[in-house]
Design brief:
Helices cover 33% and strands 29% of the residues. The protein has two helices and three strands, in the order H-H-E-E-E. Strands 1-2-3 form a three-stranded antiparallel sheet, with helices on one face. A hairpin with a 6-residue loop joins strand 1 and strand 2.
């Protein structure tokens, strides 16, 4: 697993590029060209909290991503 800190993320994806990418993704979502399934929530048996998975597909399947939270 690869963990990226704030500095690496900012270096790889400058804010201007992030904003334009999100605009394009939201436009595709509005026109039905993006897929954003309902988030999956898995309760954690070892303690309080949940594991959440939020995938998305844009650009006709050319770009995929997922947000993972605990």
């Amino acid at each position: 697993m690869l963990f990226l800190n704030r500095e690496v993320v900012h270096e790889c994806l400058p804010m201007g590029q992030a904003v334009s990418t999100m605009k394009r993704a939201f436009a595709q979502l509005a026109t039905g060209q993006a897929q954003v399934p309902t988030r999956t929530i898995l309760p954690l048996a070892a303690g309080p909290g949940d594991f959440l998975v939020m995938p998305a597909v844009v650009d006709g399947g050319q770009s995929v991503g997922s947000k993972l939270l605990t």
